């Protein structure tokens, strides 16, 4: 480790105490970017570009007060971390979960900087949300929470300033309630959020984009090494937006999907899920134990998907859900590719184990960029007051994912031909933001 890397890691740890997820995300980038800077761009070290990139341009924290159906009053904490605006308006999702805190939102916003840069679109980076638990809440409670959340957030966002979207716990319903509140308060029908319904200026394919994009990326990685997706067995974690559409696309491309999961357990269907089976999973409202009553399958409470033999593993649930032990089991069982649908789902040690094994590994900042890419396309459509066909959007999504893949190969291939996609994504994402920041002076 170079002395600059050592002192940088020390500096970040000292200045961001009690933020383990943020530090994890920064270390993962610094270990690739600093050696690159030292070898190829010492001027950017002097400019302290990485030190500037890890500091959010602005962090907003606010009170969200709302009333439940029995008139009890609740207080939650809302946030928006506006990380970097060098390439465009701040852009990134909102997460509603009791686990939300500043460390998690800063790691997500930091990852978003690299991801959004990789898309090639004019997007800055941000992330936000609240420590609100949507589970078990009525539709009216969700609406009141979203309205209260947007009553404050509306001062800080705007179609050319900061454009939030969904993430865990925030889908089209929540985007609708927040959009309605913004429009009412600002008297302005504008593209302030993405992930909107297609009847009210949303883009076709935004719900599908992250999962579909993940599979386009995986297809390209396999192709690069002479393989194909057809006939492969795929283990997926999660059962939300990303997991569902990843499973659909994997099946459509001829793979067999054998698992989905939630935080309580995993459904293992050795015969493979179909569209009908996945829709049944959705209808179960988390009661996954019901699935084997209808289909020839197993439910494993308290278990993750990674113990089941598969060719391809797609963690699509949440951060740090796949640890070193899980990585070891996947490798022992012959897994040839791990691609992240979620943000930072593999622990630091898991990543090291996977990289050492030499199998294909795609970090979320590259492989799950399809969601924000189609959000970027939604912004373009809103600006020109048009709506493109699903086919046109999906073609653009596919091209963007292939271009991201090729950027990773460009920056991640070593002289022996081995491709480190993490290194490629880190350096490929960094160089563009760094050049823009340098050009814009000391900001
Ligand atoms: N929605 C999007 O467009 C994008 C989402 N992501 C990331 O993908 C991941 C999933 O997001 P969404 O699907 O949008 O959220 P979601 O709220 O639709 O689904 C999350 C799913 O993960 C499950 N889950 C949560 N914690 C879990 C755990 N510890 N173990 C197993 N399952 C667990 C939930 O039960 C749910 O099925 C997150 O890391 C998010 O940041 C990344 C890029 C874009
Ligand atoms: O679509 C967006 O703006 C954000 C998607 C997101 O939150 C992510 O890429 O993690």
Automatic annotation (TrEMBL):
Organism superkingdom: Bacteria
Assigned GO CC terms: cytosol
UniProt-annotated catalytic positions: 127 (proton donor)
InterPro entries hit by this protein: Aminoacid_DH-like_N_sf (IPR046346), Glu/Leu/Phe/Val/Trp_DH (IPR006095), Glu/Leu/Phe/Val/Trp_DH_C (IPR006096), Glu/Leu/Phe/Val/Trp_DH_dimer (IPR006097), Glu_DH (IPR014362), Glu_Leu_Phe_Val_DH (IPR050724), NAD(P)-bd_dom_sf (IPR036291), NAD_bind_Glu_DH (IPR033922)
Site entry (Important for catalysis), positions: 167
Residues covered by the Glutamate/phenylalanine/leucine/valine/L-tryptophan dehydrogenase C-terminal domain: 203-441
Signal sequence range: none
Pfam families registered for this protein in UniProt: ELFV_dehydrog, ELFV_dehydrog_N
Keyword Flavoprotein annotated: no
Residue positions binding NAD(+): 210, 241
GO molecular function, one term: nucleotide binding
Positions bound to substrate: 91, 112, 115, 166, 375
Magnesium as UniProt keyword: no
UniProt-listed Gene3D superfamilies: Glutamate Dehydrogenase, chain A, domain 3 (1.10.285.10), Leucine Dehydrogenase, chain A, domain 1 (3.40.50.10860), NAD(P)-binding Rossmann-like Domain (3.40.50.720)
Sorted UniProt keywords: NAD, Nucleotide-binding, Oxidoreductase
GO biological process, one term: glutamate biosynthetic process
Subunit structure, as described in the record: Homohexamer.
The family this protein is said to belong to: Belongs to the Glu/Leu/Phe/Val dehydrogenases family.
NCBIfam families in the cross-refs: PRK09414.1
Protein name per its UniProtKB record: Glutamate dehydrogenase
Record organism: Parapedobacter composti
Highest classification ranks of the organism: Bacteria, Pseudomonadati, Bacteroidota, Sphingobacteriia, Sphingobacteriales
């Amino acid at each position: 480790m170079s002395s600059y890397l050592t002192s940088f890691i020390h500096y970040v740890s000292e200045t961001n105490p009690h933020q383990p997820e943020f530090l994890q995300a920064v270390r993962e980038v610094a270990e690739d970017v600093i050696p690159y800077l030292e070898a190829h761009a010492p001027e950017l070290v002097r400019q302290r570009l990485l030190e500037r990139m890890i500091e959010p341009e602005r962090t907003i924290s606010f009170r969200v007060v709302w009333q439940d159906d029995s008139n009890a009053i609740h207080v939650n904490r809302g946030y928006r971390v506006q990380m970097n605006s060098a390439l465009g308006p701040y852009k990134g999702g909102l997460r509603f979960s009791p686990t939300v805190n500043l460390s998690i939102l800063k790691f997500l916003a930091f990852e978003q900087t690299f991801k959004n840069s990789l898309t090639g679109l004019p997007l800055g980076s941000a992330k936000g949300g609240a420590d609100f638990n949507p589970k078990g809440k009525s539709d009216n409670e969700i609406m009141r929470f979203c309205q209260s959340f947007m009553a404050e957030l509306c001062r800080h966002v705007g179609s050319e300033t900061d454009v939030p979207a969904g993430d865990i716990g925030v889908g089209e319903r929540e985007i609708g309630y927040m959009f309605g509140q913004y429009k009412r308060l600002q008297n302005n029908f504008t593209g302030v959020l993405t992930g909107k319904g297609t009847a009210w200026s949303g883009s076709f394919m935004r719900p599908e984009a992250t999962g579909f994009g993940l599979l386009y990326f995986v297809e390209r990685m396999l192709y690069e090494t002479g393989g194909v997706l057809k006939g492969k067995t795929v283990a997926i974690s999660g059962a939300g937006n990303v997991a569902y559409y990843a499973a659909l696309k994997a099946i459509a491309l001829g793979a067999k999907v054998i698992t989905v999961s939630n935080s309580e357990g995993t459904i293992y269907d050795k015969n493979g899920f179909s569209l009908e089976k996945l829709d049944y999973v959705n209808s179960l409202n988390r009661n996954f134990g019901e699935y084997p009553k209808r289909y020839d399958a197993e439910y494993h409470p308290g278990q993750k998907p990674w113990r089941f033999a598969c060719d391809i593993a797609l963690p699509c649930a949440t951060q740090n859900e796949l640890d070193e032990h899980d990585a070891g089991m996947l490798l022992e069982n012959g897994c040839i590719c791990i691609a992240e649908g979620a943000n930072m789902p593999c622990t630091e040690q898991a990543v090291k184990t996977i990289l050492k094994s030499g199998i294909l590994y795609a970090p979320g900042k590259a492989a799950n960029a399809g969601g924000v890419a189609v959000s970027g396309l939604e912004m373009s459509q809103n600006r020109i007051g048009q709506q493109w066909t699903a086919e046109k959007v999906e073609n653009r999504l596919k091209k963007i994912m292939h271009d991201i893949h090729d950027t990773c190969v460009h920056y991640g291939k070593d002289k022996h031909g081995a491709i480190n996609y993490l290194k490629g994504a880190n350096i490929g994402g960094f160089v563009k933001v760094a050049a823009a920041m340098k050009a814009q002076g000391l900001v």
